[in-house]
Amino acid sequence: MTLSEKVESIWYGPGGGSVFLPALLGAASLVYRVGLGVRELLYGAGVKGVKRPPVPCVSVGNLVVGGTGKTPVARWISGFYRRRGMSPGVISRGYGGERKGPEVVTAGDGAAGLYGDEPAMLALLQPEVPVVIGRDRWAAGVKAADACGVKVLVADDAFQHRRLGRDLDIVVVDAERFFGNGRIFPRGPLREPVSALGRADVILLTRVSAAGESLDERRALLTELAPAADLVEGDIVPTRWRPFGQEARDSDEPPEGGVFAFCGLANSNGFAGTLRGMGRAVDGWRAFPDHHRYSRGDIEALALAADRSGAVAAVTTAKDAVRLGGWPGRVPLFILDVELNILAGAERLEERLTAAAMGRIE
Prior knowledge:
12 strands; alpha/beta; 21% strand; Rossmann fold
């Protein structure tokens, strides 16, 4: 078991094993909590200021390290604004990319290395919506407004970026994994105490179909933690297959039979579960850390493993696909796209989004 797998087990699984690693993580967590406390005091006292971008801004974030479905939510929101003619744009820190920004993302080969995998994926899947990366999210917002004519910003992964002023705060919570062991990073997955949900205007509970009997209890806890927030529920669902390196067509789908799957996500097992839920047998499987940069050796090893597995196709996620420079395997590689499907609270979410944008759009 790798170190990351051991930490994952402590955060979301049974833990167990040596007491040394949890103790070490706990000590580091105390230091992290002190830093959080100082930051809250500085913002609360007005010592650290908030800068509002020149156009309305909707923040999409979460409380935990890793994936909860933020990026599909950001896509859904930007699509909502675009359908209403509101000229949206996405701003992102550009985690994992070489560029510091602010810079407009150009989709294509090498984009993930320059701008980060999530901005590169967003720019590829929604070419009509500008994506701007920047370590300084406020500066990225100014760039989006000035250079791209953006009228409303969707700030991806910005809940903890307190310096950025926003008109609506949406926090995405995974109904299945929830808050893990409920501990603060790195002893647990929480970036902030759960009490920080009190800042949220909307809580969007994703993967509700996988939550099982715990769903009602988790709804009640969220309502207790953020009584003023609207609660919206949905699932992250598969939408289409795309052959790697080709334009998608309605008829594109891997042949009948088992697949060789690989991905590098915060919740990699979720991808395997999605495939099985679609009726696909997983004949081979490789998981990598979130935002993993695939080397040429990684890609060649994956292609060889896929060839040897007897699978009819290799499959991966859109986020992983932008990190691949090519695919040398004999079996074809397919990409599975996903999107947010809102099951409850859609009307209220649309009202909140419209009010946030129209309050400042000229």
